[in-house]
Every structure is written in C-alpha cells, then in structure tokens.
Design goal:
By secondary structure, the protein is of the alpha/beta class. It has a single domain (8-182, 216-238), classed as 3-Layer(aba) Sandwich (Rossmann fold). It has helices at residues 17-28, 40-50, 66-80, 99-126, 149-169, 190-196, 200-208, 217-228; strands spanning 8-12, 32-37, 56-60, 85-88, 131-136, 174-181, 239-242. It has a seven-stranded parallel beta sheet, sandwiched between helices. The longest helix has 28 residues, at 99-126.
C-alpha cells in the first residue's frame, strides 16, 4: 500500500515477532532497513530470511545497556546512508510487580526509546521532507492492570512521552507518533506463547475481541507503515490504537 523506496528505516527489536513483521513490511515496500536484537542467533536467522526481501543491516545490541545504543545507531546510519524513520519496538515484557519487573520495563521499554531517539535525532533531522519516529506501545497503557502493573504503567508513560516529544521535535522537522496494539499472535510474542501452551487466558482474550481473534502481525505493521508515510504527515503526537475493537467493551 505504501512506497518507501529510497527511505532508510531502523527497527529496534526487529529479529522476531512484531518487530520482524514491521521490518519485513518496510523491506517489501522498497525501504532499506536496519534491525537490532540482543540474541545473536535469532538475529542471524532474521538476517538470513529478511535479507532476501531487500537491503538489510542487522547488529547485536542489548538495549538495556545504555552505552551500546549510540554505537548501534551510528552503525545503522552508516550502513543505510542515514535514517529517515525510526521504529522503537523493543520490549522486555516486564510484567511482575517486583524490582525485576519494574526495572526491565523501565530500562528497556521506556529508556531505550529515550536513548535511541536522542542518538538518532541528528540523522532524522536531515531526512527530507521529514524524519519520523513511531513508538510501539500497547493498549495496556490505556487502563489499570493488576496482572501486569509494571508493563501497563510503562506503556502509559510511552504515550505521554510520545506526545511530549512530538511537540518538541516537530519544530525540528521530526514527526513523532505511537501505535498501541492489542493482543497479537506472532512467533515469540506473548499471546502466541499462551496459545501454544493452551493457556485459558488466550481463549479469554479472544472472547473479549469483537473480531474473535488476536491480530496478525502484518495488521499491526500496516498501521506502522501508515504512521511513517506521507499519508500521516499531519498526524502529530498521537497514539493510534490498533486492536480489532478489543478496548471497545473493556477487553
């Protein structure tokens, strides 16, 4: 649906699940793409398969390590010849209400976005006609959660940060928005693992979605491409909920 020929895209957490689908969608649309992940074997597998779709750069980067982020961003910009679109997709799925859960959710889901945005900004400002940042959040950030308080709170923070950064960076020629998916089934994704394990929670969430099923990863990726495209050029600081109606009735 979109033509990203000549555009340079960076997708964090792009070796599996939703990130991999987003990277594949951009590659199919003609873009050059860089992905990163902390697991070298998973990244190598993604590099081999996604590399068949177009120009792909892949590098190991542990986004919980603040010192590792700037070198990866610089390497991606060097490999691609610049950065036009940044998709912050990485998540640690920190759900537990304990020190570990809060730490990983804060450090990976939120602070990696802050750090990657800062590192990529000089290249995004050079993009013509406009640099774009798309942060991947979750509908978990739109309501309270007793099952995943850390995850939900951090996703809510991403929505707030997206709006704040949008107001600042649009003056510098960079447009910032977010996508908040509902339940998604993709290899390695939270709900896919529950489906494979016959977890009753999977059936419960399906019952709460009017469409009767979680999203396919391509359905979320298409929304990301829209937000990154000129078709969304007047959308600034928004979080687009893409959930098949899951939140309509409190699902």
């Amino acid at each position: 649906m979109f033509d990203f020929s000549g555009r340079r895209i960076m997708v964090t957490g792009g070796s599996r699940g939703l990130g991999r689908a987003i990277a594949a969608a951009f590659l199919r649309s003609g873009a050059a793409v860089s992905i990163c992940a902390r697991n070298s074997s998973t990244l190598a597998n993604a590099h081999e398969e996604l590399g068949q779709l177009g120009k792909l750069h892949a590098a190991v980067c542990d986004l919980s390590d603040a010192a590792a982020i700037a070198p990866y961003v610089e390497a991606a910009a060097d490999a691609l010849g610049g950065i036009d679109v940044l998709v912050n997709n990485a998540t640690a799925y920190g759900r537990a209400d304990d020190e570990t859960g809060w730490h990983v959710a804060f450090n990976v889901d939120l602070m990696s976005i802050v750090r990657v945005n800062r590192a990529a900004l000089p290249w995004l400002q050079l993009s013509q006609p406009q640099g774009v940042i798309v942060n991947i959040g979750s509908i978990a950030g739109t309501r309270p959660s007793v099952k995943a308080p850390a995850y939900g709170a951090i996703k809510a923070a991403i929505m707030h940060y997206t709006a704040s950064q949008a107001g600042l960076l649009i003056k510098l020629g960079v447009r910032v928005n977010a996508i908040a998916p509902g339940a998604v089934t993709a290899p390695g994704h939270y709900w896919e693992r529950r489906r494979e394990n016959n977890d009753p929670a999977y059936l419960e969430v399906c019952e709460k979605i009017p469409a009767g099923r979680p999203a396919e990863p391509d359905e979320i990726a298409d929304a990301v491409l829209f937000m990154a495209s000129p078709a969304a050029r007047w959308v600034v600081g928004q979080t687009l909920i893409v959930d098949g109606g899951q939140t309509l009735f409190g699902g």
